[in-house]
Amino acid sequence: MQTLGDAVNVFKCCVFTWNVLSIVLPAFLVAGALVVFVPSHTVMKYMGAKAKRIVSYGMSAISGNVLTVCSCNVVPIFAGILRRGAGIGPAFCFVFAAPAIHIVNTVVTYQVIGARLALWRFFTVPVIAVLVGIAMALLFHREERARQQKVQAEPAIALVEQAPGQARRAGAFFATLVAVLIFGAWTPIDGMLPGGAGQFIRLGGVVLLVAALAWLALLWFGKEETLEWGRQTYLLLRMILPIFIPAVIVIGLVISRLPIPPEWISATAAERASGEVGVKFGHPYGNAPLPVFLSAIFATLMYFPMLTEVVFAKGLLFQKIAVGPSLALLLGGPGLSLPGLLLVARVAGGRKMIAYWLVTVLLITVVSYLFGSYYGDYLCACQLQAQATAPPPEPGLLGVAGFVVYGVIFLWIAALLVRARQAAAVSAALPDSTGS
């Protein structure tokens, strides 16, 4: 690995491939559905400013386990829960934790790098997220009080929560849409069939599922609410994509040409003899506070498509980078990025974005430094292997599980559609309230 682009090719990530239909678009549809179909009192109950902190922060910190999103795809959902009345603390807790804690990240880190880094990553992400949320709530408590009053005074965008039984339908609809998002991001399916056929089966399945959900929305909620769903999704796309795509292109152009000089990793013989090593990221010098801090800054500004931070960290571990900076990359890489921070600023404001970034970098530095100090002499399994070691086998079981999930989602939506049609037929056959 001579350049950053050798490990992370931004131009082949989900935004610039067909995966935009199965990974990016469902995230925006989920955010739009959250604004329109999920009753505001539900969001307020679990993530509102008046909710119990153990409930609101707990929900925000662990809800990312069922989402497979990156630092940019999570921002539309972040905007949706803010507009629905979520407190600023739980909202920022969610926006950091969701990309960094999902189960696929943990499993891949365990398989590719090792148990210690994977477990520290899994258990420290919720802690960092909760502390970030509490810090944001304390820093902006006055603005938050005024925002909550404004949210409560505004009328609901849709009327789904006013009809009997609609809240239950809205919950089922939203849960099914989240399941479609998870399936759309289940990339191990792509390797099951030759010629890339698995990818297009996944993409086609997502398109069909979204079309079926749109029909279900018409049957359950009516034309007005379904059109509002499309409108809210479009507004989020218009707000986010003009910032996201140019930022990703700029980062891609920079990292494709930025080399990684060997002297950044290992000290020379002259430096070791003089005792003046300077800033080095290799073991053991990289476990000092400054290299870990610089790694945290880099990780939170760099854009890592989903799971590529694991590949990048492994490539650096092959070059004997210390475990402290490695954990900083794994913690900050998926949760934050320069495009994601710009989008957060667009949604929540520049002051909140800067405070969020500074608090997160500080917490990541502390956690990674403690890890590096405790496991300073720990060697990752990939460091003990030769460079020519074959990659791990394709996770076929994950692909099979993906197809099973695919079928279950299809059957579930089909059952919902049948029941909705039956209910509509029964309602049409009954006389109206005037007795005519």
Question: What does this entry look like structurally?
Answer:
This protein has one domain. It has 18 helices and no strands. It has helices spanning 19-36, 40-47, 53-62, 74-83, 88-101, 103-112, 115-139, 141-153, 166-184, 197-221, 223-255, 269-274, 289-301, 308-318, 323-335, 338-348, 350-374, 396-429. It is globular and about 95 Å long. The termini are far apart.
Classify the beta-strand content into a percent band. Answer: under 5%
Elements, N to C (H/E): HHHHHHHHHHHHHHHHHH
Low-confidence stretches: 385-399
- How many extended strands? 0
- Estimate percent helicity: 55-70%
Number of domains: 1
Instruction: Indicate the structural class.
Output: mainly alpha
What's the tally of helices?
18
Distance between the termini: 78 Å
Envelope shape: globular
Mean pLDDT: 74
**CA-based gyration radius:** 23 Å
Oligomerization category of the chains in this entry: single chain
- Summarize the biggest pleated sheet: none
